[in-house]
């Protein structure tokens, strides 16, 4: 068993990853609660954004910050276009159909990344990682600080936005009943477009941060969405605050398993295990129903 000193760097890593997972989870929860779409392409969009930034910096010799800006704009544009063009056609469909359609987008993007950039190993170091400071005997980069800090700001800021603003109220109304909200004069398409836009921005930022924290690999970044999804599922795709704390747990458990050699190779299973245990605990007193409300009503 490693000593406490061996675990300390992984606590910092786990908090940083948890912050990005919370950032991603917030984007997924807001989109799901507004449109009923579980966006499984979130990770793929972020991965391609990070690769675009890497390509602009290393091959086109662009300055770093404009390249990062283009990457986030790409993620925002792809997500928004998908939501505006495909989203309305999915509005009345079953939740499973909606999720599967975004999985198709993820596979298209993953194939495109493999075709353009192949599987060659790459690394992307953000400027914020070149400067570090020490907390005790642990070196902490500014990328790690920003990752955790953004998670806090975005999650709790979004929760306040949904509660206190007119647009947030409209989004919560759509989450409860799309038809009634539309009859009250709320511009449903416009509100849903804002949710897709926010999801795209968060996807691009998450992809850039994760490409620095865990490496720039298209497949790995695409499927890291599972960790964010696990946090969102623990929160039942409803509570942003619970999503935040669940994301921190997922990040910490995954990171702290790394120095334990006997279970290190299984650390990627942590999101699945945590989500399964949490969902079983949450549903322990509920009865499963295939009629009436639930997944069968097509509203997610």
Provide structural commentary:
- Helices cover 70% and strands 3% of the residues.
- The protein has 300 residues and is mainly alpha-helical.
- It has one domain (11-282): ABC transporter involved in vitamin B12 uptake, BtuC (Orthogonal Bundle), CATH 1.10.3470.
- The chain has a two-stranded antiparallel ribbon.
- A hairpin with a 2-residue loop joins strand 1 (132-135) and strand 2 (138-141).
- Helix 1 (4-35) runs antiparallel to helix 12, helix 3 (64-85) packs antiparallel against helix 9 (188-213) and helix 6 crosses helix 7.
- The longest helix has 32 residues, at 4-35.
In short:
The radius of gyration is 19 Å and the shape is globular.
Give the overall shape, derived from the CA principal axes.
globular
CATH class assignment: Mainly Alpha
Q: Could you give the order of the helices and strands?
A: HHHHHEEHHHHHHHH
Query: From the helix content, strand content and strand pairing, which structural class follows?
Result: mainly alpha
Indicate the CATH architecture.
Orthogonal Bundle
The main β sheet shows up as: 2 strands, antiparallel
DSSP, total strands: 2
Q: Distance between the terminal alpha carbons, to the nearest Å?
A: 44 Å
Number of helices: 13
What is the fold-level CATH name, i.e. the topology? ABC transporter involved in vitamin B12 uptake, BtuC
**Taking Cα atoms only, what radius of gyration do you get, to the nearest Å?**
19 Å
Quote the beta fraction. Answer: under 5%
Count of structural domains: 1
Overall residue-averaged pLDDT value: 85
Helical content class: over 70%
Poorly predicted tracts of residues: 288-300
Strand line-up in the sheet with most strands: 1-2
